[in-house]
Design brief:
The chain has 217 residues and is mainly β. It folds into two domains: 29 residues, no CATH class; 183 residues, Jelly Rolls (Sandwich). Helices cover 8% and strands 35% of the residues. A six-stranded antiparallel sheet has the order 6-5-9-3-12-13, with no helix packed on it. The protein starts with a helix and ends with a strand.
Length: 217
C-alpha cells in the first residue's frame, strides 16, 4: 500500500472518529471551544441570601413549599455570538444548624423583559445541577469552584446584545446560599428574587448575583 493511500485512509478514519465525538469540540460536547462571555465575580460587598423551601423568619423547613419557596434570578447581556454552553453560579451548600441540602438545583433560562427580569412566558429550557457539583466550602471569589450548569442541550443561539435571564431554584428545605453583591455590581443586567409560594413575579434585588457565561462562537 502506497504512502499516499495510507495518508488518505488515516484522514478518513480521523474524520469518522471526530464526527463520532461530536465534531471539533470533542467528547465534551463542545465545551472545550467555549469562551468566557459575561461575568460578575463577587469582588465587592456581598450579603447573605438563600434559595429553597424554608422560613426566612426562623429557618424552619417547608418541604411542600406552601408558604416559602425562595428563588433568585440574574440577567445578562450577550457580548459574544454563538451557542450558549455553560452558566456558572457560586452556590454554597450550607444550612446552619440544619443538615446540608441534598436535592439538586434547577437552572432555567429565559428571555429577559425590558426591566431585566425574566420573561416567564419565554422559557428557553432548564437543566439540573446535582448536589455533588455544589461547593461545601465558601469561596465566592474563585469561579473554578462555582457550580457549572451545562446548557448545551438547550441549543440556545445568542447574538450580541441579546438579554437573557436565568432562575435558580430547589425543592430542598435545607437551602443553598446564593449571595447578592451590593457593590461592584454587573452593568449588563439585574438580580431579582421571589417567594414563589406567594407570588409568580420577581422583584428587583438591591444587587447582582455572581455568575459566568460561556459561549461557543
Amino acid at each position: 500500500m502506497s504512502t499516499r493511500t495510507c495518508t488518505v485512509i488515516a484522514a478518513i478514519v480521523s474524520a469518522v472518529l471526530l464526527a463520532a465525538c461530536g465534531g471539533s469540540g470533542g467528547g465534551d460536547g463542545g465545551l472545550s471551544t467555549a469562551v468566557l462571555d459575561q461575568q460578575n465575580l463577587l469582588d465587592g460587598s456581598i450579603g447573605g441570601q438563600s434559595i429553597g423551601r424554608f422560613s426566612n423568619i426562623d429557618g424552619s423547613p417547608d418541604p411542600t413549599g406552601a408558604s416559602f419557596d425562595f428563588q433568585n434570578c440574574q440577567s445578562f447581556t450577550v457580548g459574544v455570538p454563538g451557542l450558549l454552553r455553560e452558566i456558572r453560579v457560586p452556590l454554597f451548600n450550607f444550612a446552619g444548624g440544619m443538615s446540608n441540602a441534598t436535592q439538586p438545583v434547577t437552572l432555567e433560562v429565559f428571555r429577559a423583559l425590558p426591566s431585566g427580569l425574566p420573561d416567564l412566558n419565554q422559557s428557553l429550557g432548564s437543566v439540573s445541577i446535582p448536589n455533588s457539583a455544589i461547593a461545601t466550602s465558601f469561596a465566592p471569589g474563585d469561579p473554578s469552584l462555582w457550580a457549572a450548569a451545562d446548557v448545551t442541550s438547550l441549543q440556545i443561539t445568542v447574538q450580541i446584545g441579546d438579554q437573557l435571564a436565568f432562575v435558580v431554584r430547589t425543592v430542598d428545605s435545607a437551602s443553598y446560599l446564593y449571595n447578592p453583591e451590593s457593590t461592584m455590581t454587573y452593568a449588563g443586567g439585574v438580580g431579582g428574587r421571589r417567594n414563589a409560594a406567594v407570588t409568580s413575579t420577581f422583584g428587583l434585588n438591591s444587587g447582582d448575583y455572581g455568575f459566568q457565561t460561556f459561549v461557543s462562537p
